Amino acid sequence: MEINGAKAAVTGASGGLGSAIARALHARGARVVLTCRREAPLAALAAELDGADFIVCDLADRRQATELGDRLVDTDILVANAALPAVGRLEDFTPEELDRALEVNLRVPMLLTQRLLPGMLARRRGHFVYIASIAGKIPTARLSVYSATKHGLRGFSGSLRQDLLGSGVTTSVVFPGSVVDAGMLADAHLPAAPGSKGVTADAVAHAVVKAIEHERAEIVAASRMERIAVRVGGVAPELMARLTQREDAVAYAEQLRDGLRHIR
Questions:
Q1: Could you report the per-residue pLDDT of 201-239, keeping only the tens digit for each?
Q2: pLDDT tens digits, one per residue of 40-93
Q3: How far apart are the C-alpha atoms of 115 and 168, rounded to whole Å?
Q4: Tell me: the pLDDT tens digits for 3-50?
């Protein structure tokens, strides 16, 4: 799909990954709409991206999420990037925390897709990009809830893509690996996962652009070792499960959990 001239909305745009995606789309000539729950960083990014609009919205609030969908009905490209970390053992989550993670990470992307889809179908033009995670491909300690939402995005996008064949509208999923300069690792002040050199937010943004322009179903935006792990996990899931249960991998997961307690 041609990005130049398209209206592109990015959720979670105030974070490093969301802002990198917004900049990449703007550089390709898109009319960008930025959204997140914090006004100050949105306003600053909108000022940087000449011509960009922004909408303040807390996606955990169902009324606000529904209103956002109504305001974006003429959108050509949606990048569903907003997500909560949801890190920790399942038994440590409250029911409210579970609901919030499922709401923001999975239900809202589905809701926004449902709201924007009729207009795209009528125009026979549109693209949905769902930002998942390498954790949506391979098992990772202390990420059962987060991984479930990212696996869910993959299933949703893949099936919806089949329903949309020939309509002029399609979907993609991008699976970032260990993003070292934005997102969960940056928030927790951690380096890349053991065995990985990590990937930058700009590299993930490039993958988003590629997914749209080449209408790719899935792109893994990760280090070489992480891409190898994805392939191994696809054919030998028990072996991958054993590898990810190593002491260093579990210790790293515990550090990530502790570093993100304040935003779960």
A1: 999 999 999 999 999 999 999 888 888 888 877 787 777
A2: 999 999 999 998 999 999 999 999 999 999 999 999 999 999 999 898 899 999
A3: 17
A4: 999 999 999 998 889 999 999 999 999 999 999 999 999 999 999 999
Confirm if 104 and 130 have CB atoms less than 8 A apart. Answer: no
Q: Is residue 200 part of a domain?
A: yes
- Is residue 161 one of the residues assigned to a domain? yes
Domain, as residue range, for 205? 7-263
The whole-number pLDDT of residue 141 equals 83
Task: Supply 257's token pair.
Answer: 């959990």
Show the DSSP H helices in the chain as ranges.
16-27, 39-48, 62-71, 95-102, 108-123, 144-163, 183-187, 201-213, 224-235, 237-243, 247-259
**Residue 49 placed within a domain:** yes
pTM above 0.85, yes or no: yes
Phi-psi bin for 142: left (phi > 0), alpha (psi -120 to 50), beta? left
Question: How many domains is the chain built from?
Answer: 1
Q: Is residue 1 part of a domain?
A: no
Q: Are 176 and 221 in contact (CB under 8 A)?
A: yes
List active site positions.
146
Predicted confidence at residue 247, as pLDDT, reads 56
- Counts of helices then strands in the chain (DSSP H, E): 11, 7
Distance CA 158, CA 154 (A): 6
Compute the residue count for the chain.
264
Q: In CATH, what number is assigned to the domain containing residue 226?
A: 3.40.50.720
Closest by CA to 69, choosing from 3, 18, 128, 14, is 128
